Amino acid sequence: MKTGIIVPCYNEEKRLNADAFINFINKKNNYHLCFVNDGSKDNTISVLRQIQNTNPEKVSVIDIKKNVGKAAAVRAGARYLHSRGDIKFVGFIDADLSTDFDDFDGLLKTLKTNRKLSMVFGSRAKNASTGIQKDGMRAFFSKIIKMLVFFILRLPIEDTQCGAKVFRAELVPVLFKRNFFSRWLFDIEMFLRMKKHFGKVRILNKIHEQPLKRWIHMDDSKLGLKDSLEIPYRLLSIWFNYNVMQNLKYTPKEKIIEPNVEIYGMPFAPIAP
Hints:
By secondary structure, this protein is α/β, with parallel strands linked by helices. It has one domain (2-264): Spore Coat Polysaccharide Biosynthesis Protein SpsA, Chain A (Alpha-Beta Complex), CATH 3.90.550.10. Helices cover 39% and strands 18% of the residues. The strands form two sheets. It has an eight-stranded mixed beta sheet with strand order 8-5-7-4-1-2-3-10, with helices on both faces. A two-stranded parallel sheet has the order 6-9. The longest helix has 18 residues, at 136-153.
């Protein structure tokens, strides 16, 4: 049984470190990389296919034909990995490797060591070390997000938005059965879904926030100024859907429309049951 790592990619042709991914997967026999091309407009898909061709048994490439956002890209990767049957743990990291493989190994080790845990996630805020680097504007928005997120979750989490998380494969139907409301604040929705599934008391024994040794914010962030200014509204929308509508016991008649995808080189079904 392997650990599947989802790597969502959108216009990553120029900054994707292909050699780093190739070296990692060649050295690690218990990992499977799942790249998800989220409707990139550049030549990202060709770069991903080149990585896959170096080790096709340990690399999958999912090509989403139209850009749908990081939330849907991670969801597509998680459901695919769950459907394979040979994946015990599922995680995701950012394509720019702002969190490196050593830190991800540390998250996985914690999850494997403590069988009570269902998810372990990296933190750039908890006991932050000198290896964590942020620019001033990003740090400012992080503080705003942190206050709003605590209001929504009511959980002692320092950093919900870190792009490095790993969880047990059986959690995939709980987290990814339904579409997310947000394109890129879906991490908060994941915690809300876990809270509903396990209960507000039990969830504290199911999640673990682990400080990262290294995290570097890369230039050319996909989160623009307009997106940043919309964060309070997006968070309010999440709070309304998961708290107000849920308390009213309103169940929307959601028609789930799956994105048009193509999976290269792997004879497995793309959608988990």
